[in-house]
Q: What sequence folds into this?
């Protein structure tokens, strides 16, 4: 397969393989009847949100289910009111005999469970039906439901949310979930239990994490698939950036040239990963044609993908969000919606732009206080690249930046990435570091020539109090940590919620 990059003729790019005769048929989704798994046994491993949803779906399909999790402190699902009416359910917690997986007719793997554990890789290679929760749900979604799937290291929640909001504002029945919020299995359950023959949704907008793509999918076939970007993250799981790129590109593995794939222009690792695909797919680029470009001065997106009949301009001036990167997020969402081929045009989308709102904890404006300070929650910035993007997006807004938490550092002898923040930070008021990695971040910034004051706080509460004392009228205080949250909080949502409570606590 050869990669043809965008030319001046704006020709749409198609990836082709020497093995294209093996391309999976265009329609791989099917709508299974209720109880299609009657008489079958399903093992669900990992009982977080996705695993519990997959368990409910397996029971709704008539299977007997063994629900497995290594956490001995979880409650038995049989005792949960949501499951108590099901007699064909057994929960196994803590250590378990892997023979349970071998004896099951099907194994459904939650995204939090790596394939290296419990012999899952061996089972997959041996021919056992091992599915991701995503694929297990997609197997029975009605064929008429179009899937818009979004992945990437950063920004996927925002693009998925914007896409869902555009569709909803235009009167399209849409499910928004996956890695974001509601598992896809919940959507499948709604489809199974709906008394009407008409599908509950017309479109499923699905945020997809790399963990959900580790098990190669067979049924999850997007009409539009977006890989927003690829930067260093989750390497404790994927080991190398090459593996990470290959995993992300599996999102496009069952698409055909009637579908649309959207990728960032010029990413070598993603281009190489795309070479390994055996199917054909129309590609559009983020930052080049065919694809989408944004003129930030004019606040206009140029959308040009002639192969799907898209050659238009979209005005973004009415967008009411923080961060210049969100203009690209809105433009990519618009192109993704157009790619669904549902009779929606750019003019219709333009009527929704002023209504778009970012999801919580993503450059979210929390409060404008009585001292003229704007407080912004970007707790979802759990890596340096996300913080870097947020800083660039602040444009001319003088800010107090809160950095800290648990840095994603693979080796103490290697650069930790915070040195790249020195340049964009120079335009701001000051930095406040906090949490476990606060001292490391402060030292890195100082050693690399940080030109603005940097204060160290013990924890997030102290950081907020410090920010309140140094921020001036017209400033913003931005929590954009560049770190994981697990030194002090359960997750980034918990961190963001506490930040918001602290913001209002002394008003």
A:
């Amino acid at each position: 397969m050869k990669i043809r990059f965008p030319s001046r003729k704006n020709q749409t790019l198609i990836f082709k393989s020497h093995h294209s005769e093996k391309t999976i048929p265009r329609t791989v989704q099917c709508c299974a009847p209720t109880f299609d798994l009657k008489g079958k046994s399903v093992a669900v491993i990992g009982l977080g949100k996705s695993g519990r949803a997959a368990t409910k779906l397996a029971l709704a399909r008539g299977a007997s289910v063994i629900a497995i999790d290594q956490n001995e402190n979880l409650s038995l699902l049989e005792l949960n009111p949501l499951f108590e009416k099901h007699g064909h359910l057994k929960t196994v917690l803590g250590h378990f005999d892997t023979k349970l997986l071998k004896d099951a007719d099907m194994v459904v793997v939650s995204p939090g469970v790596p394939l290296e554990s419990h012999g899952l890789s061996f089972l997959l290679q041996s021919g056992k039906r091992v599915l991701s929760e995503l694929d297990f749900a997609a197997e029975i979604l009605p064929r008429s439901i179009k899937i818009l799937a979004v992945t990437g290291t950063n920004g996927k929640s925002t693009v998925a949310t914007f896409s869902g909001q555009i569709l909803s504002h235009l009167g399209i029945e849409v499910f928004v979930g996956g890695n974001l919020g509601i598992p896809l299995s919940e959507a499948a359950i709604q489809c199974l239990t709906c008394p009407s023959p008409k599908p509950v949704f017309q479109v499923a907008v699905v945020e997809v994490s790399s963990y959900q793509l580790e098990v190669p999918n067979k049924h999850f076939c997007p009409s539009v698939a977006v890989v927003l970007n690829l930067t260093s993250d989750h390497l404790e799981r994927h080991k190398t950036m090459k593996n990470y790129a290959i995993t992300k590109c599996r999102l496009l593995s069952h698409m055909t040239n009637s579908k649309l794939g959207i990728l960032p222009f010029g990413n070598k690792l993603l281009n190489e990963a795309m070479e390994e695909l055996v199917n054909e797919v129309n590609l559009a680029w983020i930052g080049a044609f065919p694809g989408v470009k944004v003129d930030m001065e004019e606040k206009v997106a140029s959308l040009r993908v002639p192969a799907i009949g898209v050659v238009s301009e979209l005005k973004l001036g009415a967008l009411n969000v923080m961060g210049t990167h969100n203009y690209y997020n809105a433009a990519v969402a618009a192109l993704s919606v157009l790619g669904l081929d549902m009779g929606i045009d750019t003019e219709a989308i333009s009527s929704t732009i002023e209504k778009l709102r970012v999801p919580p904890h993503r450059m979210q404006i929390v409060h404008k206080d009585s001292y003229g300070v704007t407080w912004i929650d970007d707790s979802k910035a759990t890596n340096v690249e996300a913080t870097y993007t947020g800083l660039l997006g602040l444009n001319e807004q003088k800010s107090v930046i809160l950095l800290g938490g648990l840095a994603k550092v693979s080796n103490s002898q290697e650069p930790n990435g915070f040195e790249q923040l020195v340049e964009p930070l120079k335009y701001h008021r000051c930095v406040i570091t906090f949490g476990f990695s606060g001292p490391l971040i402060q030292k890195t910034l100082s050693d690399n020539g940080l030109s603005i004051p940097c204060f160290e706080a013990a924890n997030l509460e102290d950081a907020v109090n410090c920010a309140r004392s140094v921020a001036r009228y017209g400033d913003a205080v931005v929590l954009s940590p560049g770190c994981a949250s697990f030194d002090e909080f359960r997750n980034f949502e918990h961190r963001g919620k506490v930040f918001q409570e602290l913001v209002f606590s002394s008003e």
The first helix runs from residue 49 to 60. The mean pLDDT is 90.
